[in-house]
DNA sequence: TTCACCACTGAGAGCGCTCTCTCGCCCCTG
DNA sequence: CAGGGGCGAGAGAGCGCTCTCAGTGGTGAA
């Protein structure tokens, strides 16, 4: 990895600007950084000189002394063998067949896929609409502040160490961590290293950290109330992994509310938040409870899977069976029938997460705080 | 934005390690950077000292002299009023209704969505599965090299300037640019500024740049051949924006192949790559050609929209009408019936794009090159 | 008039690292 | 045994910036 010499042709420095403007380096620096006290005339002169020589400040030099990089790490943390034990599933439908184009007609095309991507946990993370929403939320908040997120992935011992090192080296001023594994050691490591971090969803093991989270239980309640209001009494649930707070709480909220209204028995199956697992779960539930008239899935992807199976089995939605999802992801609106779902304001949560980190950066000694977001029921056609 | 003083408690520097090891700063530096010539004993001593004092190199100091940040910018560039003139559509189905939870039961929850995100072009970009695939591909390639992508968004004059400034300031060594607007000035600006950049898809206006792209036309041909092989002759197409090369070429490849096989008339409608536009297009096509028996959509999202409309209209897929999509995105596999589609190896393309950038960084004077990827037909159930 | 006090600007010391240059040492050769 | 070559290590000069501290000139109060 050589040095990019090409246009290293001596970019202008503060010194150059100072010379051009006939002032000192310090004065130019003051102007560049929103001068607290530089006379208007000099300010003009310096501004002109900056424009004339085409000066841009060198981030590295600035960071060296200010100890601020102006970068925020966005860490997607997925430990292998995690709650998403989905590795065995969905590796392409069995009926898939790839017809390779035998002879590209003359074009100098190159088939350059060296390490053909196996469909790993990693790919699944980025394929989930959840990821895009997080990014959109973070970016929306950071952009006006002229900050940018550095995307990092932690999936094993090595990459976790790398993330920690990068942070310690000052590659970023702090980390926004989306951890989707209850046994993930990263949160603990970050705290231990004293690195500024804010989490999406509370860590599974209690830690004195800042985080944003959702009133999951309440979401489950909303779904239950909706089904109850429709007179559904033979309901079932497709839960998320019970090792995750989100998985347990959504289910609990649903079941508790049902129980409170006299529906004591709520059969459920555990999925892993993928569409395929939703399909499997729905099949199993129909097997067990052929008469069911309502289903609550702990996320939209699983709900969509349930929708497919119900259609395949000739059940009409919502006439025969009502289906309620969770998240209000893009999948909910594009499903047919459109999915009634419990909204999780992911973008707003992600934005808030970023805001919490900046607060922590500005006031290192402020006590850790958490922000809980409320859910809403988005009523569409499925239930 | 004050300084995070908390643990600024004098991180150990090279100097400290040198003292601890009883050697000079230079020697420690050599060891840290894969010493070309340091005696094994000394190496051991230094390594131990590094571990003992808990040293991590300071990136800023290093970057200041090496002029390498070890960061790659990943720029999503969307000019407003672009090909995706989707602003008018899909802003929530009209039948949506939000039931706000009136009284959260006591919990100290906070409804903190200050700038409630309007569904902007930005959100749409990140909601598209395409984005996740790009990220996954880039990350897959960069990660083993211990490099990280800095995510930037360029959507208007101001943010474009910001991206350019950041690059000039050395926030990143180069840029990977995904530009989804034919009129986007960013590619030109980057070239003009002499900044290292590689593009996903060729710039609409010819520029001497590196890029990866797809044999779009060939993909259209594959789709046509598939339909022809099934004896479909009343075919139609849902095209992408014709202002984009991808939009035109996919359509051209499809129509040309049809023509070559005696199907001279191929009605088509232009969509904007969203599911909604696919639905609208399908409705229009059915209106115009009630007898059609095959549809080629320029991407999977639009194909899924077509699927919905066909079902709604009582057409069986694939018995009555065959549907072929493009991209082989997650939407294709999760649709019902599963979507036959032309695969675009986005992950591999993104990885290659990153590789091209690193090559450019290593050899600034190497001539711009492009890499074209081939398509494949992925046969599933829809056609 | 004198002195304290601003308000503004300049000088200079580093931030932590890399890299060139130099030096010392050992080994090989004539 | 002297001289040359090569290798390993140290010294020191910055990279471009910020920030403290000192200095200058002007003003108002004593």
Automatic annotation (TrEMBL), chains A, B:
Q: Which UniProt keywords apply?
A: DNA-binding, Transcription, Transcription regulation
Q: Which PROSITE patterns match?
A: HTH_LACI_1 (PS00356), HTH_LACI_2 (PS50932)
InterPro entries attached here? HTH_LacI (IPR000843), LacI/GalR-like_sensor (IPR046335), Lambda_DNA-bd_dom_sf (IPR010982), Peripla_BP_I (IPR028082)
Ranges for the region named Disordered are: 94-118
Q: Which GO terms describe its molecular function?
A: DNA-binding transcription factor activity; transcription cis-regulatory region binding
Q: Where is the HTH lacI-type domain?
A: 12-66
Keyword match rRNA-binding: no
PANTHER family for the chain: HTH-TYPE TRANSCRIPTIONAL REGULATOR GALS, LACI-RELATED TRANSCRIPTIONAL REPRESSOR
Question: What name appears for this protein in its UniProt entry?
Answer: LacI family DNA-binding transcriptional regulator
Organism of derivation? Actinospica durhamensis
């Amino acid at each position: 990895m050589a040095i990019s010499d090409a246009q290293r042709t001596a970019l202008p420095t503060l010194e150059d600007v100072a010379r051009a403007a006939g002032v000192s380096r310090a004065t130019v620096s003051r102007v560049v950084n929103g001068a607290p006290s530089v006379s208007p005339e000099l300010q003009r002169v310096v501004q002109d000189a900056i424009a004339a020589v085409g000066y841009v400040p060198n981030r590295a030099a600035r960071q060296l002394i200010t100890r601020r990089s102006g970068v925020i790490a966005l860490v997607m943390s997925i430990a292998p063998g995690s709650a998403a034990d989905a590795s065995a599933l969905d590796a392409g439908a069995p009926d898939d067949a790839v017809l390779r184009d035998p002879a590209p007609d003359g074009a100098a095309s190159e088939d350059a896929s060296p390490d053909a991507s196996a469909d790993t946990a990693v790919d699944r993370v980025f394929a989930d609409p959840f990821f895009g929403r997080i990014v959109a939320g973070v970016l929306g908040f950071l952009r006006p502040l002229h900050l940018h997120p550095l995307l990092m992935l932690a999936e094993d011992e090595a990459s976790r160490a790398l993330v920690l090192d990068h942070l310690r080296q000052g590659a970023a001023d702090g980390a926004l961590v989306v951890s989707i594994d209850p046994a993930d050691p990263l949160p603990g490591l970050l705290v231990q290293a004293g690195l500024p971090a804010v989490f999406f969803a509370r860590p599974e093991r209690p830690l004195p950290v800042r985080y944003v989270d959702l009133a999951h239980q309440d979401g489950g309640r909303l779904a239950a109330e909706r089904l109850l209001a429709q007179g559904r009494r033979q309901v079932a649930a497709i839960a998320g992994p019970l090792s995750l707070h989100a998985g347990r709480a959504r289910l609990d909220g649903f079941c508790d509310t049902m129980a409170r209204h006299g529906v004591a028995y709520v059969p459920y199956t555990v999925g892993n938040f993928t569409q395929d697992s939703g399909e499997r779960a729905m099949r199993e539930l129909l097997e067990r409870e052929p008469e069911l008239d309502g289903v609550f899935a702990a996320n939209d992807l699983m709900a969509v899977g349930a929708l497919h199976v119900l259609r395949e089995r000739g059940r009409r939605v919502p006439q025969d069976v009502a289906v309620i999802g969770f998240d209000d992801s893009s999948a909910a609106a594009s499903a047919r029938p459109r999915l009634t779902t419990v909204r999780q304001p992911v973008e707003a949560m992600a934005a808030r997460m970023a805001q919490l980190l900046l607060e922590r950066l500005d006031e290192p000694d402020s006590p850790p705080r958490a922000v809980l977001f409320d859910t809403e029921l988005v009523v569409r056609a499925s239930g």
